[in-house]
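Problem 12. The chain below contains 413 residues. Write out its predicted structure in token notation.
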Amino acid sequence: MPLKYYLLLLVGCQAWTAGLAYYGCPSECTCSRASQVECTGARIVAVPTPLPWNAMSLQILNTHITELTESPFLNVSALIALRIEKNELSHIVPGAFRNLGSLRYLSLANNKLQVLPIGLFQGLNNLESLLLSSNQLVQIQPAHFSQFSNLKELQLHGNHLEYVPDGVFDHLVGLTKLNLGKNSLTHLSPRIFQRLGNLQVLRLYENRLSEIPMGTFDGCGNLQELALQQNQIGMLSPGLFHNNRNLQRLYLSNNHISQLPPGIFMQLPQLNRLTLFGNSLKELSPGIFGPMHNLRELWLYDNHITSLPDNVFSNLRQLQVLILSRNQINYISPDAFNGLAELRELSLHTNALQELDGSVFRMLVNLQNISFLTSSPPTSFPVPTAPLASVDSVTTPAHFVGIVLHGDSFSPK
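Solution.
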């Protein structure tokens, strides 16, 4: 959870601290209230003392602190949130967080940590959010997280992890958000996430994964977001997502996927956003997308698709955005867009279309915009006749606005 959530908790605690004096405030820090302390600046080379004994939030930012020694927070046992970010911190003694049993939020992000000592987090049994992102960590071990039964968020993105050992997350039964993006992971064990039944968000983007073993996500029945973009994935197992029926957002863009196995998306009835752009897809077989009656956005640009067969999108009855630009499409079947009654935006620019059946848009009764690209286009056109070399009489939907002939304004996340 974000830090502001825990700061809101402090508002309810002000009543019992308001009438209590606190024991001064270090000169390097700002104590705007008795419970909130912020220490910033390059002149700080060690944790300032003495800290107010009733402080509940402590932020140490942009300092030249390189090490946390044993028990620097011994007199602030009421801390709920501790944020130590953007420092020169490279070493932490195992007893540094002793006596912080009330801590709910701990961020050590944006430092220079390479190693986490075993026992570093001992006693932090109430911790709910742990941020270790943007460091230089090369490994994590099961013993690092064994006591975190209450942990809900673990941020590990932006490190140098190449491998995550089996069992490292087994004790995190309450975890809802796990970010392993921007590391150097080359493979995953099929049982690495099997105990994470409450996980809702799993991010593995910008790694070096070439394949995902069958069963990797089977234990994540409550998963809502899965980010696998910007890896080196070449193929997907047919049943890879069969136990992820609550999945809403699936990011598979910028990989090396050349084909989609039959049934790969069959068990994803709640999916509303699917990105497959920047892959090597050459064809889309009918029925590959479905049934996904809640899908709103499908991003397929920057592939090698050459044609769209009949009924290829017919199961996507709630689809509103379909991006097919920058492919090699030279033929669209007259019934390719069957079932897309809710489609609003259709991007087809930078393809190889020379002819288009005049009835191809007839089922798109809510279509508002189509994007094409030609060598010397006008700025807009009221009906889809100009951008193609040969078009028969074209039936346009009642809500049709026009065609964008000179580019594409879509910018996915």
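Discussion. Residues 2 and 129 are 8 Å apart (CA to CA). Students who got a different answer should revisit the alignment rule from Section 12.3.
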